[in-house]
Amino acid sequence: MKAIACVLLGAMLPAGVGGCAGMSPSDNVDFQAVVAKSVSPGMPFVTGIKHLGKEGFSCDDRGSAPTVTCTRLRQNVLPYACIQRVDLKTDSDRKTIIEVTPEPIACAGL
Known about the structure:
Blueprint: H1 2-12, H2 25-38, H3 45-54, E1 58-59, E2 67-75, E3 80-90, E4 97-102, E5 106-109
Antiparallel strand pairs: 1-2, 2-3, 3-4, 3-5
């Protein structure tokens, strides 16, 4: 129901004012392009974290698990927010990124 309301409301607003960021395929394509530009398999882990940080992501690399999650919050003029998430899988020494997995954008609102 929320998704339908978001799409209907987004259709009534001018494109520059609002809409439903994260709900359209183009938003996910744009997000994946940012991730691909910032980080790639084979890149040093520290460099990848630094590049994602420049794009506004926050990465929790405090643990020793080989997978690190990086997130970025996107807000809109409408009462909802979207979270963009990318998982970075590293080698056992956490020196090199071996896999980059951007997750679908998740949005929530009133």
